[in-house]
Design brief:
single chain; 350 residues; alpha/beta; 2-enoyl-CoA Hydratase, Chain A, domain 1; eight-stranded mixed beta sheet; three-stranded antiparallel beta sheet; 43% helix; 15% strand
Amino acid sequence: MEEQNIPAQTPVPAPAAPQIHPSQPQTNPSRTKFWLKIIAALYAAALVASFVVISKVDGASKSRSKDMDLSNLAGIGAAKKDAVAVIPIFGAIYQTDSSKVWERGSQQIAKRIKAAADKKEVKAILLDINTPGGSVGAVQEIYSAILRAKAETKKPFVARFGDVSASGGYYVASACDKIVSEPGTITGSIGVILSASNFAGLMNKVGMRSEVIKSGKFKDIGSPMRDMTAEERKLLQTLIDDSYDQFVTVVSEGRKMPITEVKTLSDGRIYTGRQALDVGLVDKLGDLQDALDMAGEMGHIGKNPRVYREMDPIDQFFSILESKVGFFSGVSLEKVVGVSPKLEYRWYGF
């Protein structure tokens, strides 16, 4: 019998256990359960809070529906609590000459005065003034807005003076029924000024000359490139005199003083608040709270009234910024350096 050679079978090795790479994150079952419990607890808390809020709202609505009967129908649509509107006028007063959203000027202040006067809950308006004045047109725009609001709504206006309320600031306050000033406020400076720079001497030194082609001899009046003629100076003085006459008339009407008396006070001099009280330019010495109390009493809502402010946070931020550093006031470089002549109700000590 022949032997059969059966080839030896190579044993098949058992599958090796999978190896975990050191960088591969390992899942910890106990840790996973812990976070699942946290999430479940937060979800449950959110559900409980939601049910509490819903129950409170539902209870309030049911309470209102139970209380609503024919005797309470008269209260529907009742006005909000009466208040005194406070409108700040900070920094130099000019009309804006830019379309940028942060630029502010007399137009915005006039609109704010009208909007506040149209509010039914506003019974009086307090102008918080801290300004050395500004351009004639811009100051008169605010003044006209006050007179229009008083004529249309019969609501009283009170002006409160802060650090400075001079020239155009006082012009605006003249439209108000009462003026409250701090004892140390700088006010007055009733008058008009027109300033123009003259670079003619500098131009001659550096050998520069300006060539102007004009339709009339006064077309480049106030040019900084040449000296002013006597005829031009006389013409500009008539502008000053007319604007001054308007200022004196406004103060005379607002303060109920004879024009002759106003003119003795209106040579451009400045006063402290206490001096202004002595000569009749303000009605009372006090702070912002005193002014609020006066406005509340004049509006027949008593002292310490609710304050109504129609200024959004962004506008308030730029208003404060302008009052501190003079940014974003709509004043161009020409206004700052005085390249172009400008007619102003402004105190130049500020």
